[in-house]
Amino acid sequence: MGNRFMKIFHFAVMAIALVAIVVFMVLHVKAGLETQMSKVYAALYVLLAVWAGIRTYSLGKDVFGK
Asked: Looking at residue 32, what is its pLDDT?
């Protein structure tokens, strides 16, 4: 029972992290991408969002058994 609870908790945390990363990425892009470093940061946001999405998908598959 405890292991399932931890998997659900981990899934929820990763889902919240994914939403937060996407929101920060959108805010960053709306502020403008004038410098080279801001473009690098935007690319890193995309990589983090992809990682969090894959992690959330795999945890959701594990928790919900699909």
From this structure: 85
pLDDT confidence of residue 44: 94
CA distance 34 to 3: 47
Whole-angstrom Cα distance, residue 31 to residue 23? 12
- 29: amino acid identity, one letter: V
Which pTM value belongs to this model? 0.82
Give residue-wise pLDDT tens across range 18-43. 999 999 999 999 988 888 998 999 99
- Alpha-carbon torsion 20, 25, 27, 28, what sign? positive
The Cα 35–Cα 62 span in angstroms is 41
Please enumerate in sequence order all residues whose Cβ is within 8 A of that of 40, keeping only pairs 6 or more positions apart, or say none.
none
Residue that has been written with the tokens 């892009």 in this structure: 29
Residue written as token pair 């983090």: 48
